[in-house]
Design goal:
This protein has helices at about 5-10, 25-35, 55-60, 80-95, 115-120, 140-150, and strands spanning about 15-20, 35-40, 45-50, 70, 75, 105-110, 125-130, 135-140. It is an alpha/beta fold. It has one domain (about 5-150): CBS-domain (Roll).
């Protein structure tokens, strides 16, 4: 296992997301593919970020739900319900580039598995993109590391 490099265990059949897709479209892709995140590419195929379930969930958390007051058997809204509806539409229609993580921690394809595992643990990541000469060539998850340990 000590001789293994990132390129030996990385997933190369990547599911990537275009930066122009909406949050709604990205949510569907992640659900359909049963993955928790994916690299985000621009139209030139360059990695510009990483989007995760957490990024999408946090987008929804930023919405300010209307506050209401229950008074004499009726509800009085203290915030504009119309504004909430507008914010909700905006959040669902937001582009992935607005919610993705832009400063992505990456590893090189020739990094040792030990180094990759250290990066995942120390940075509290579940996945890390693998680069070759600055270009995205794969991804490694904590599950990939666990599988490698189990098979060694």
């Amino acid at each position: 296992m000590e001789d293994l490099k990132a390129k030996d265990i990385m997933t190369t059949d990547l599911i990537t997301i275009n930066e122009n897709l909406s949050v709604k479209e990205v949510s569907r892709i992640l659900l359909e593919k049963k993955i928790g995140g994916a690299p985000v590419l621009n139209d030139a195929g360059e990695m510009v970020g990483l989007v995760t379930e957490e990024d999408l969930i946090m987008q929804d958390v930023k919405l300010h739900f209307p506050t209401y007051l229950h008074f004499l058997d009726s509800y009085i809204y203290l915030g504009g319900l119309k504004k909430f509806e507008e914010d909700l539409k905006k959040a669902v229609g937001a582009k992935v580039e607005e919610v993705m993580t832009k400063e992505v921690v990456c590893v090189d394809e020739n990094d040792s598995i030990k180094n990759v595992a250290t990066v995942l643990v120390n940075k509290k990541l579940t996945r890390v993109p693998v680069l070759k000469e600055g270009k995205l060539v794969g991804i490694i998850t904590k599950t990939d590391i666990m599988r490698t340990i189990a098979e060694s």
